[in-house]
Here is the input.
Amino acid sequence: MTPEAAPPSAEAKRLYLVRHADAGDPADWIGPDSERPLSSKGVRQAARLAAALVAAGTRFGALRTSPARRCTETCAVIAAALDATATVDEHLVDGPTASHVAKLLGRRGIDSLLLVGHQPHLGALVAELTGITALPVEKGAMIRIDIAAPFTPGTGQLAALLPPAVLRAPKRER
Here is the structure.
């Protein structure tokens, strides 16, 4: 399923949730966890996701990211590919809430929003918005939820789930 598949109703807004790409093993990192950078695998994951969004013609009214380095780096790759600007959002450190999402989507001119954050917070938000629990949110994955106006928790519709494996380059034939 492409990021733009199955357009929402005219009144619905699109929320894209991206879990930061791979940042290696936290046990191997010396320093504050908030400063842990993307691994080379994570940079490739973010680039493939960005390429898929560009290929689908995806545009965002706003891009928000957790201030953690692995999130800002993931979001920077996506923003650069889309020629967009991202904003660091402190609300994403401890997880976005449905009310914060509603506030952001309620702003004039924002009909689609991309949030880059962490697990288990993104999974909890998916559950709050859609009622779907235990949805896997792998590193480098993207989820799209369509939310109809007026916004009420539990009424979001899962529209797309792109795990990083879907975006891997095909293996070369020998």
Observations:
- Strands lie at 12-19, 62-65, 86-88, 112-117, 142-148, 157-162.
- Residues 46 and 74 are 6 Å apart (CA to CA).
- Residues 40-55 form the longest helix (16 residues).
